[in-house]
Amino acid sequence: MKYFYTLIIVLGVSLLGLHVSHAQTGLPLELTILSSRTLNGTAGDFVTVQGQIKNTSRAAVSDVTTYLSLVDTENKLPVDLEDWSAEKGLYIGTIDTGQVFPLSWKIHFVKAGTYALIIVATAPISDTPQVSAITRFNVAPKRNLNPGNILPVALGTPVAIVLLLSLLAYKRQRRAGE
Amino acid sequence: MFKYIWQKEIRGQLYTWKGMVWLLVASLLLSFTSYLLLTNKELSLLDQTELLWLLSKIIIGVALLIVTIDASSIITTEFEQETAESLFLSPLSLKDFLIGKFLASFTLWLALFVVATPYMLATSAGSNLALAFMGYILLLGSLGVAGFTFFVFALSLFYRSSKNTLTTSLILLLALATPALFSSTLKTAPVIGAISKINPFDAIFSSLDNILVDYQTSLWQNWQFILPLFMFCLLTFALLIFTARLFKKQGIIKSSE
Question: Reduced to 3 states, what is the DSSP secondary structure of residue A144?
Fold first, then answer.
């Protein structure tokens, strides 16, 4: 009986060890970027980042979530994705063995600069996320000087109203003087 | 006879420096907003349709505010300055009086629309939406302004005091405008969703969103927004008729009792 308990304890510890080692090995998922690795554009442009996620293990991986991470490489700062992409994360769910899911994000170039984007995949079976290769963005500034002739309108309309008011006031004064 | 009232008000409001300054202020506000929207580094990244939507909200918001403030005093001053008695001693019916005052308030909206026209043309240039943009602002704005004017006139006949009328009107305007600014996600909540369906502000902004962002430009595609606005006008008109009858019953002297 003593041997039996020892065996149970040894087996338990081994299984726990296996589980821990599995959690530390990372996800058996492969993230591939299908779109160009360097995307150029002007602030205001939209680009699409496409990729795919593949389960390379022999077991299904459940509760998989993929999301974007964007870094301003000039200022060495992470960027809030709020204006850049309407969909920050994509919930995939379960990926069966060998199954491939396409990933697509529409990105709005909000501000000029150089940026690095990665796709991150996480699942509860591992503490280590899987990351894709870097996609680089080179965003040129948008020169938007006086589009649609707004300056003449913005200045001209109040001036026209002031002139009209002055004319009315002048007419009233003249009429009162007569 | 209403022509006389209308012309008298217009002369007082639009032919004087002081009476026209609000138009200049509105024009400066539109100048600042449209210039900022088109030239500011980050704001200019908005889609042109979103920019038009934002501008249309400002035009209609300013119009409703100005007309509400004007309508709050246009009738009540006759009681406060004690000119109502002499007015109603003349062969002037209450109907003509109200029509004249309504046309005067509505003219302010048309004046603002004329001032806003160059901005609308400049911002919508190249979008193929200029006609729809301006046409729907005129239609939706007119319905909104008419509804609010009827409501404020009803309050004016009931209160006969510009302070009370203005306070109540502005509170209602604010109360209706606030839920209209909620995001579409919040509007999925049952209570907010139900309020937004009958809120005239929401109807105006949702219709403009439908036209400018979703390109649903025909009247048929916007009936679900125009109908509640029309109902709002009918409802406030019915309220005005009710208070007008009450006013007739009580007589002009009530305020000095």
Answer: coil
Distance set, CA A17 to CA A10, A22, A41, A60, B187 (Å): 10, 8, 49, 21, 50
pLDDT truncated to tens, each residue of chain A (178 aa)? 566 666 566 555 555 544 444 444 678 899 998 988 889 988 778 889 999 999 998 899 999 999 999 999 998 989 888 778 877 788 888 999 999 999 988 888 878 889 999 999 999 998 889 999 999 999 987 665 556 678 889 999 999 999 988 888 888 888 877 6
| Minimal-distance CA residue of chain B relative to A142 | B41
- Structure-token pair, residue B113: 């629309």
| Distance (Å) from the alpha carbon of A161 to chain B's nearest alpha carbon | 6
Q: Looking at this protein, which amino acid is placed at residue B146?
A: A
Between positions 142 and 161 of A, the ones with CB within 8 A of B are 142, 144-151, 153-158, 161
The two beta strands, A113-122 and A61-72, are antiparallel
Asked if A161 lies within 8 A of B24 by C-beta distance, the reply is: yes
- B250: helix, coil or strand? helix
- Interchain contact, A154 vs B15, CB within 8 Å: no
DSSP-derived letter for residue B186 is: G
Rounded Cα–Cα distance for residues B183 and B189 (Å) = 11
Handedness of CA A20, A25, A26, A28 (dihedral sign): negative
For domain A26-149, the CATH class is: mainly beta
Q: Specify the amino acid at residue A90.
A: L
Across-strand partners of A71? A78, A116
| Cα A39 from Cα A114, distance rounded (Å) | 10
The three-point CA angle B116-B118-B121 to 5° equals 105
Chain A residues close to B118, C-beta within 8 Å? 153, 156-157
Domain-wise residue ranges, chain B: 2-256
Distinct helix (H) and strand (E) counts, chain A? 2, 10
pLDDT category at B104 given cuts 50, 70, 90 is: very high
Yes or no, beta carbons of A153 and B15 under 8 Å apart: no
Q: A51-60, B22-31, B99-108, B180-189 — which is least confidently predicted?
A: B180-189
